[in-house]
Amino acid sequence: MKVFTMLRYYQKGFTLGSMFLNEIPLVNTFEPPWVNNEHNLSCFPQGLYVAKYVNSPKHGWCYELQDVPGRDEIQVHIGNDLADTSGCVLVGKYHGLVWKGRPWARKSTVGVLESRVAFNEFMKAAGRDREIQIEVIGVNDGIK
Questions:
Q1: What is the largest CA-CA distance in the chain?
Q2: Number of domains in the chain
Q3: What pTM was estimated for this model as a whole?
Q4: In this prediction, what percent of the chain has a pLDDT beyond 70?
Q5: Which of 43, 50, 74, 75 is spaced 20 to 30 A from 131 at the CA atom?
Q6: 3-state secondary structure of 85
Q7: Cβ neighbours, 10 Å, residue 13
Q8: Closest CA to 21 of 38, 6, 40
Q9: Is 143 strand, coil or helix?
Q10: Contact in structure between 66 and 72 (CB atoms under 8 Å)
């Protein structure tokens, strides 16, 4: 079974990360901040998880983490910023500013860019195996 490693960098208001396969950088990640594992508000607890290849009604084919304490439907999927996740892992090629709104009233927020490209790279690396493992490690636990 393939084992992906996700390193988390907790920030105030969001969580940045990087995902690796065999110690080779693959994609960047973006999640909500740590808010005591609150459903729809927080990233999920660190640990080693089995992720199953599922057809999500909302996100299509993706990987869903299994047996996440106190949580369900934690998926790795396409998205750019906090508005696109309620606790799931968004993947992107780069971390950066996401611009939203009409051209005359644009606002920026932190997130990931080129999410669809990164998601395709993640899916290709996973090989659409029925199950993979994702180990989530916090790099700076003190900021949680």
A1: 49
A2: 1
A3: 0.93
A4: 96
A5: 43
A6: coil
A7: 9
A8: 6
A9: helix
A10: no
Residues 124/109, Cβ–Cβ less than 8 Å? no
Q: Are strands 131-138 and 107-113 parallel, antiparallel or unpaired?
A: unpaired
Q: What pLDDT shows up at residue 107?
A: 81
> What pLDDT, on a 0 to 100 scale, did the predictor assign at position 106?
74
Beta-bridged to residue 55, according to DSSP, are: 61
Single out the residue of 103, 100, 104, 119 nearest to residue 30, CA to CA: 119
Q: Which domain holds residue 64?
A: 3-143
Summarize the chain as % helix, strand, coil (round to 5): 15, 50, 35
Question: Given this model, what pLDDT does residue 105 score?
Answer: 66
Give phi and psi for 120, each to the nearest 5: -60, -40
Closest CA to 88 of 27, 40, 144: 40
